[in-house]
Amino acid sequence: MLAVLPQAPSRLRPDRWPERAEAARNKVLERMAVQGVWSREQVKESREEPIWLAPRQMPQLAPLFSRMMLGKSKSEKIVTTLDAGLQRRLEELAQNWKGRLPPRSSLAMIVVDHTDMRVRGWVGSVDLNDDSRFGHVDMVNAIRSPGSVLKPFVYGLALDEGLIHPASLLQDVPRRTGDYRPGNFDSGFHGPISMSEALVRSLNLPAVQVLEAYGPKRFAAKLRNVGLPLYLPNGAAPNLSLILGGAGAKLEDMAAAYTAFARHGKAGKLRLQPDDPLLERPLMSSGAAWIIRRIMADEAKPLPDSALPRVAPLAWKTGTSYGYRDAWAIGVNARYVIGIWTGRPDGTPVVGQFGFASAVPLLNQVNNILLSRSANLPEDPRPNSVTRGVICWPGGQSLPEGDGNCRRRLATWLLDGSQPPTLLLPDQEGINGIRFPIWLDENGKRVAADCPQARQEMINVWPLPLEPWLPASERRAVRLPPASTICPSYGHDAQLPLQLTGVRDGAIIKRLPGAAEATLPLQSSGGGR
């Protein structure tokens, strides 16, 4: 066979034209028999050998990305920004991860160098050839519910707006806005909580509170302006559910927007080809971006500069959509933004799949691969607009040592030195808020404002909905001075009404098959002392 191929290697290729190759080989064998080089017996045995060559597997790197790029360009040759070595590692990782995924589930990964916005890795599915996992569907540019992945953006924008600072007192309490009554992933509530902790723990009610103050329409417009459109049903307007995944988004757009946390607040546009220009738009200030990135890296404490790592560690945020349909994890390390998605492309639920359990392990694997290939990582120094401060709860601002209105002191980062007062809910003005006016007589007893010689004082109290989580010494009944019996006040001892959570108005409760009764996991809060 080797004697034949050089004569016409293309025409006699055994993998493409086995019949031609066999005829040419047999012709040479016959000539060898005629010339006495081989015996007839040897030639007969050789002619019985089949002509077979395993078809060569064509290289298939980044197939879904390649399909997308072919659809974008009419050029015969397309040069992209993908790193072939990294892409191969990511595809091997996806194949190794396949066995961990539930049936009919897939995954997607994107890696972006945030220093120049080049896309370095793109894995659209776990296995292109696995139809049971919808391997032909590119989930990097599919529209899916992002769960909580949008929360860092609303906190960063609220910092710039002067609504909050990282230690702002937020309220993780049961709330209802019209027909919308959000809850937390763990189904519980945590009462008073700082913005930093609310973001790290991905609590829903504080994020809804901040979005309500910032404005959902304004929030959606801000993200759309930097290249992160949120997809809503036809005719629907942005509302408070946005921040909990009540809209669609693409993994590629999300990764591009997250570059703002590493690019001094400016979100870049993905560069798919080397000649693509570097474009970016401002999303938030460099100080707000730096603070949010540090919080996501679990570095919310305002350490001295000497104790701050110059190279920022991995900052990350997870997201889980309603019904466990999508699990997200977005990470920002010193050089790259990493986007991870897992779930079922057909949108069916996967019970028990959520961002921390399903996507974060994969995120960490990709991060380790990237760090093993990286050297001379860029540093992330603290911007001059970020300073350190100490504030007090419940008011949210600094107070002198010994001031009785400072019930708890917290060290925090501050943006431009700003100390916004505690952000209240819409119905928490006046005596329902924090600054509580009282009138005292000469004995320090609380009296009515029109009582003789009454003097006014302002006392900081905690917002009423937080009382169930406060120690008895911090509740209004104890914090307010006792009332005078001679000229009593008009009674502003506001109490939180009794609230039951765990069941919705109009809900239909049915017993499980074979059960004698239905059990409701109710919780109560408020209702007096």
TrEMBL record:
Where are the coiled-coil regions?
Answer: none
Pfam families per the UniProt record, alphabetical: Transpeptidase
Penicillin-binding protein transpeptidase domain: residues covered: 113-325
* A single GO BP: peptidoglycan biosynthetic process
Q: Does the keyword Glycosyltransferase apply?
A: yes
Which molecular function terms from Gene Ontology are attached? penicillin binding; peptidoglycan glycosyltransferase activity
InterPro entries reported in the protein's UniProt record: Beta-lactam/transpept-like, Glycosyltr_51/Transpeptidase, PBP_1c, PBP_transglycosylase, PCN-bd_Tpept
Q: Per its UniProt entry, which superkingdom is the organism in?
A: Bacteria
Provide one Gene Ontology cellular component: outer membrane-bounded periplasmic space
Q: Does the keyword Transferase apply?
A: yes
Could you list this entry's UniProt keywords, alphabetically sorted.
Glycosyltransferase, Transferase
Record protein name field: Penicillin-binding protein 1C
